[in-house]
Amino acid sequence: xxxxxxxxxxxKEIAPSYFKxxxxxxxxxxxxxxxxxxxxxxxxxxxxxxxxLHRKLEDGFxxxxxxxxxxxxxxxxxxxxxxxxxxxxxxxxxxxxxxxSIIIGGGIGIAPLFELALRxxxxxxxxxxxxxxxxxxxxxxxxxxxxxxxxxxxxxxxxHGFITDLFLDSIDSIDFILYACGPSKxxxxxxxxxxxxxxxxxxxxxxxxxxxxxxxxxxxxxxKNGYKKVCKDGPVFDVSEL
Length: 242
Ligand code: FES
Known about the structure:
This protein is of the alpha/beta class. The chain has helices at about 70-75, 115-120, 140-145, 165-170, 185-195, and strands at about 1-15, 20-25, 35-40, 50, 55, 60-65, 85-90, 100-105, 125-130, 150, 160, 175-180, 200-205, 220-225, 225-230, 235-240. It is built from 5 helices and 16 strands. FE2/S2 (inorganic) cluster binds next to loops.
């Protein structure tokens, strides 16, 4: 982990209120790790926000975010050439296994899963969202020759229902590893299914991240082995720990 400054390559709105930003930096990160980015022009430390590695680029990396508060509003207005103040990569990412992988992303939870999918062998991707307007990355996966299965809560595109139901409908064995990120309700369902069916599973957990470096205990998350820090021990946890 290091503190560095980096230029923005682009910042574009890819769906209503969802933005993709390229950050030009020669830095290595693993899928599931995040960058803690200052989202203000002053020195207020609390205005850093966590953004996971979305995709590695030749000259940097992409983040994907939803504009939904002061910090992300600030970021969404930045332009090519603006400079960011970044700490990272932070936390522990996904452990990539050799077996077949199924990857489930709900809403903006697809953000840390794109680079993961590119590094897995022959992954199966399921993407869920409330409506078709908030389904993210479907075309990006297609460009990488991966055809995702999609679901929407309102039935406006793909399977009508929850992504976890589509997942259950689409499997005929349990010989795979499951990776997931999404809203907490979706993750609760994924954890329950993985435990009941004895499927190896890693999830990336969302939490309020303050310091981002393990110093404030603001991101405590209950596990079988006591409280862990999402920013330092996570954000990826093996379901066997939960
Ligand atoms: Fe401070 Fe995790 S955000 S310890």
